Amino acid sequence: MSQTMLKVDGLCMRFGGLLAVDHVALDVKQQEIFAIIGPNGAGKTTVFNCISGFYKPTEGGITLNGQSIAGLPSHAVANHGVVRTFQNVRLFKGMTVLENLLVAQHQQVKRNLLSGLFKTKAYRAAEEEAKANAAHWLDVMGLRAFANREAGNLAYGHQRRLEIARCMITNPKLLMLDEPAAGLNPQEKVELQHLIDQLRKEYGVTVLLIEHDMSLVMGVSERILVMEYGKPIALGVPEAIRNDERVIKAYLGES
Ligand SMILES: Nc1ncnc2c1ncn2[C@@H]1O[C@H](COP(=O)(O)OP(=O)(O)OP(=O)(O)O)[C@@H](O)[C@H]1O
Questions:
Q1: How many angstroms separate the alpha carbon of residue 154 from the centre of ligand 1?
Q2: Which single residue of 50, 95, 97, 190 could bond 57 by disulfide (Cβ 3.0 to 4.6 Å)?
Q3: How confident is the model over 58-109, as pLDDT tens digits?
Q4: Based on the domain organization, do 16 and 76 belong to the same domain?
Q5: Is ipTM > 0.90 here?
Q6: What is the CATH number of the domain that holds 11?
Q7: Residue 61: CB within 6 Å of ligand 1?
Q8: Ligand 1: which atom is nearest the Cα of residue 38?
Q9: pLDDT single digits (tens) 109-126
């Protein structure tokens, strides 16, 4: 049995009178692909925002490899190796694809002002490494032909891939994808499923995913947590979730 990487316990998030997340618990194992699903407004993105440091939870624990990350600001959570994408793609749209990948590595490239000014050997080496990494991820994501194109001018599916590349280039432990299939065509969805699988197999990343596309969720996830009105209502393998009466009811109630 592999080790738990992310553990969320008794997580609550209140907005005024609304308990958007109500005692959510989950544990994601090393190199697992774990999905959170649920009807609109169930609290999925709020859970993501709490884990990634965009919200400070009202209550509850969040640990990464046994270390508490609850309540840390997002940049500190990112420094622990937890990175995420957003429901609406967030890129530097006026920069080129390549520049987006170089900027994503700014933490790794030595930013010491003096070493930058004098272009020390170490600084130049770090710059070269950043460029080589960028080239690698352009290839993995099939974006090499668009390296010098403005990110904002890419087709939507390519923007989504660039967003994932920006995460992966930082060599994360946990990759959090918020509705990565939204806006993709059926062919792109199939490719996305293969990509998620490939990222886990080849780069050892653990994946936490929110997704409405059931074919993708059922095809790629090892375990699924279902939320409704802020509460966890089911947790299990895809086959069990597919046949869970509470889950079926929650989804039927939505349509
Ligand atoms: N910053 C906020 N202030 C007030 N209410 C919020 C805030 N963020 C989320 N909510 C509310 O919390 C509830 C859960 O929202 P959330 O976006 O987490 O749901 P979701 O499951 O991700 O939905 P969807 O699938 O539609 O993206 C909703 O009722 C939403 O209006």
A1: 29
A2: 50
A3: 999 999 999 999 999 999 999 999 999 998 888 899 999 999 999 888 766 6
A4: yes
A5: yes
A6: 3.40.50.300
A7: no
A8: 21
A9: 655 555 666 677 777 888
